[in-house]
Amino acid sequence: MSYLSLSTWSLHRNLGPLHWTVWDEGEKKHRVQIEPQPETVKLVDLPVVLASKGFKAFEICHFHFPNTESDYLQALQSACKEANIKLHTLLIDYGDLTTDDEIRRDADMQFIKEWIDIASTVGAERVRVIAGDADPGDEKALARSTHYLNELVDYGKTKGVGIITENFRSLTSTADNCLKIVRSSNEQIGLTTDFGNFGGPTKYEEIAKILPYSESVHAKANFDSEGLPDEEEFRKCLDLLAPANYDGSLTLIYDGPGDMWEGIDRVRKIVETYL
User: Fold this and answer.
1) Could you tell me which residue ranges the Xylose isomerase-like TIM barrel domain spans (predicted)?
2) Domains of the chain: residue spans and CATH
């Protein structure tokens, strides 16, 4: 049976500064750019807050970690255990496995492996890795991505961490590419389906293709200028869950204006009718 989860992106104006990873082409190394945001709740306190609201799991974006020292990670893991809430996925929101810049690709692979180590320490079940920024028609880039994703699967096994990717960014902007990646690993690479990341006239067909292979769903609606979801469109996406026999986490995504908890509640009221 499906259950409620939440992405920390849905609280990105509440959890303090965002630590964005960027590639410095001149210096050929990673840098962190800090984007100030209010902190109305600390990440380490979030598990008990979410559990009190009835969430069974959550996902953390890597840029929300205020630090990655061992003591902090263990404290966060303990907070999850005490709240009886599952850290379903650590979302690694940086990395391009399709780049033909070998220096950057090696650096990005090392970066991702370090976050797999962090996921293992903090108790995350899996990490979401971006498949790549290359054009979806670039077969060489697709092969490069699948090669490195499978390498990460092997590395993740040594740490007890699963590897999933998502219909996110250019390479996986088609269902066919998502499925090619999954099948390249005998389905050891999992998928997250994000309702908001496919578009155009084939959107629902594309979602339907990848849902049966998905370990999580990002339940993201389209929002108007007041933060109100397009309920009719959103339900068209949610109606695809049952035919796919999907019974995993439904991770609420709110990225509209205004109070983020109120926005989350508006999404939740719709999604709960599908639990």
Assistant:
1) 50-263
2) 3-274 (3.20.20.150)
